[in-house]
Amino acid sequence: MVLGPFLMIALTVGISYISANSSSSSRQVAVISDSAVLRKSYLQQHKSGINSKITTTAKAKKAMKANHLAGYLTLEASGAQLRGDYHGSTAMNSGLKAQVQNFLVQYQQLKNYQTAKLTPKQQRALAQTPVLKQHIAAKTGTSNSVKLISFWVLITMIYIILITYSSITAQEIASDKGTKIMEIIFSSTTAISYFVGKVMGILLVIVTQIVIYILGGWLGYTIAMQNSGIKKLVLANQDLVKGIFHNLFNLNLLYVLLGVVIYTILAAYSGALVAKAEDASKAAQPVVMLSMAGFFIAIPFQNNLDAVIVKILSYVPFFSSYFMPMRIINGTAGWGEQIGSLVILLAAIGLFALYIGRQYQRLMLQTDSESIWQHLIHSKRRS
Amino acid sequence: MLSIQHISKAFGPVKALNDVSFDVPNGQIMGLIGQNGAGKSTTFHSILNFIDYGGRIQWQGHTLSAADFDHIGYLPEERSLMTKLTIEQQIIYLARLKGQPAKVIRPQIDDWLERFAVKGTRKSKINDLSKGNQQKVQLICTLIHQPDLLILDEPFSGLDPVNADLLKQAVLAAKDRGAAIIFSSHDMEHVTALCDQLVMLRKGDVVLHGSLDDVRDQFGKTELFVTTDWSTERLQTLPGVGRVTARHQHRYVLHLTDASAGPAIFDALTQGHYIEEFSQQPPTLDEIFRLKVGEAHV
After folding, report:
1. pLDDT at position A138 over 60
2. Cβ–Cβ < 8 Å for B65, A376
3. Where does chain B show beta strands of DSSP type E?
4. Mutant choice from A176, A182, A188, A196 vs B, greatest count of B C-beta within 10 A
């Protein structure tokens, strides 16, 4: 399960590589011309995507029929005008079209200058082109991207962890239910110690998985940086990368961890409520639904952080793990608010664990067929 | 000493325990007998605080709490182990819950496996063991930390006579080192062989309580074991004889209506001559059990 994402990435990259290699020849274009100079000039300027071995129309047609060629371009210099004809099963893509167009314009211009017998000064004067430049406030643009990417990474991370582990946690707890080993355990330690230990164990598994992903991500990043293109891209966007890392490895990470803790406790409680181990996935549903509610409510509010509901939910345990990081990322929550929300979350975790710990022994040793709601009502009465 | 004082427990309208009281002194074995549903497991669950109950349970003079868990060895009625673990992992895991460090327990494991004749090594998976061997591993887990209070719910169920003897020896060894032991059983032979005291429960009520001899003596010496060449019909004519049961050839049990009829029967049977067997005894525990269960159905 832990290695699943790595295997998926390896599989996707592998298949893409094989697919790219096998289809590259069928995406090539041949260049054919009676003028060797003209053909050579084109081939010198454009090497990628060109099949230089095919030199005649007949061979090009044959290769196209065998699906080894996407098309062929014939270049012709008849008199003072240059002409290019493209023959293919589909239209030229915009890149190739621009490339050909550019070459024809340049070559035609050169030919025109020669025909007009212009002096170099006149040539330079005619070569003047207008200038259009965009001026964007780089900092604001990057900052918005940082916020957006950080937001999505964080809430997706919480959501995926919770969806994955809620049913596992419930299942793990429910599988103990009704077994006599629980009687032996409860004759050896307190239910609350066992419950906290069990939840801690599950959390350590989650943390181990997160650490493996972080290490895997770092390894992937190191390997990707060997590629000059990616390295150039990363260096060009250093502010963006730094900003995202800053947003992930601060108080937000604590919110993610505490969010996982409180949801894991709830999932464990759900597992303890079921009458049979087979019902564990059913028991995990309320936790999954609650987690989904947090995730889907957060999405529409990402651009409306001043809404009252966002402010309220950033203090409500189970939701604060989604909403407070959103506010922190966007700088709409002060330190006081962040600490206040954190204290409420921590207190809720403590009280919740204590309450469930007290009910845990009764719930685990019960083997009757009470429904989840009956258990809840009865355990509330007993407490 | 374990002291059970006036404990009561009801599940809805059903009374599982009704004012049950008894003591289990250190170095003694208490047998808890009764039909299924009599309240034996409920008594154990009350001692272990698994359920709420009325009354008081004390251990060594104080209310039993989590601090005493390390001194308790408990074997539940149905066996259950963590089947994915090896024998060693299972024993160490449960011993550590009892506050015993792995380095103390690990060197003892082979001795215990040998003592209980477990077919498997410390590295064997629980899942690969037979049911009987799993049960023996569970017994080792119950005993290895040398508990001062041993609670065994039907410990002999499923054990063959050889393994039952191994368990008896282990229980007696625990008694010798001063542990208070309470166990339930449907097999009166085991109870007779092991117990210093017994309590019989019937629908949550204590119907018998005391040492084995005291309990049997309550019923009078109404069983007369004789070996004679008299016929069943002739024995039936003796004064005070209610019923005659033939055991083997020439061996009979005379069920007396009046225990004081013994000397007269002795005179009639021997007429001053030697006879091989004449033994007047109280009813066996098995008979008392049937008698008490029968009373409930009258």
Report:
1. no
2. no
3. 2-11, 14-24, 29-34, 54-59, 62-63, 72-75, 149-153, 180-184, 197-202, 205-211, 223-227, 241-246, 251-256, 277-281
4. A188
Could you state, in order of their start, the residue ranges of all structural domains in chain B? 2-215, 223-281
For chain A, domains (ranges, CATH) are 27-119 (3.40.190), 145-382 (no CATH)
- Rounded CA gap, A53 and A42, in Å? 14
Q: How far apart are CA B115 and CA B174, in angstroms?
A: 14
Where do we find the tokens 């295997």? A7
> What type of residue sits at position A130?
P
Residues in chain A: 383
Of B12, B82, B7, B80, nearest in space to A378 by CA: B12
Laid out side by side, the sheet with B62-63 consists of B14-24, B2-11, B54-59, B62-63
Q: Which residues pair with B75 in a beta bridge?
A: B152
Whole-model pTM: value is 0.70
Cβ A103 vs Cβ A46: under 8 Å: yes
Interior/surface letters A165-191, b for 16+ CB within 10 angstroms, e for the rest: bbbbbbbbbbebbbbbbbbbbbbbbbb
Residue among A47, A295, A274 at smallest CA distance from A171? A274
Query: In Å, how far is A185's CA from the nearest CA of chain B?
Result: 7
pLDDT digits (tens, 9 = 90+) for B111-154: 999 999 999 899 999 999 988 899 899 999 999 999 999 999 99
ipTM of the complex: 0.83
Alpha helices in chain A (DSSP H): 4-24, 36-45, 57-65, 94-116, 120-126, 138-176, 180-186, 191-224, 228-236, 238-248, 251-273, 280-298, 308-313, 320-329, 335-365, 372-382
| Interface contact B194, partner A, CB < 8 A | no
Angle between helices A138-176 and A320-329 (to 10 degrees): 160
Domain B2-215 falls in which CATH fold?
A: Rossmann fold (3.40.50)
Quick one: CA dihedral A226, A229, A233, A238, positive or negative?
A: positive
Find chain B residues with C-beta within 8 A of A178's C-beta.
none
- Give me Rg for the CA atoms of chain A: 32
Pick from A183, A189, A190: CB nearest B50: A183
Please answer whether residues B213 and B228 qualify as being in contact, where contact means their C-beta atoms are separated by less than 8 angstroms. Answer: no
State the count of interchain CB pairs (< 8 A) between A and B.
Answer: 42
Determine contact, residues A244/A143, Cβ cutoff 8 Å.
Answer: no
Q: Is B50 on the interface with A (CB under 8 A)?
A: yes
Residue A209 CA to residue A219 CA, distance in Å, equals: 15
Contacting residues of A for B69, CB less than 8 Å apart: 187-190
Q: At B260, list the tokens.
A: 């004081």
Smallest Cβ distance to A180: which of B48, B76, B151? B76
Residues 88-147 of B with CB under 8 A from A: 94, 97-98, 141-142
Compare CB distances from B81 to A181, A183, A187 and report the shortest one's residue.
Answer: A181
Q: How do residues B229-256 score in pLDDT, each as one tens digit? A: 899 999 999 989 999 999 888 899 999 9
Q: Which residues pair with B14 in a beta bridge?
A: B11
The span from the CA of B225 to the CA of A143, in Å, is 102
Which range (A279-288, A318-327, B97-106, B260-269) has the least confidence? A279-288
DSSP, residue by residue, A219-280 = HHHHHHTTSHHHHHHHHHTHHHHHHHHHHHSSHHHHHHHHHHHHHHHHHHHHHHH-SSGGGH
d(CA B8, CA B21): 10
- Those residues whose C-beta lies under 8 Å from the C-beta of residue A310, and which sit 6 or more positions away, are A301, A304, A323, A326, A327
| Shortest alpha-carbon distance between residue A362 and chain B (Å) | 7
Residue B38 CB burial class (10 angstroms; 0-12, 13-18, ≥19): buried
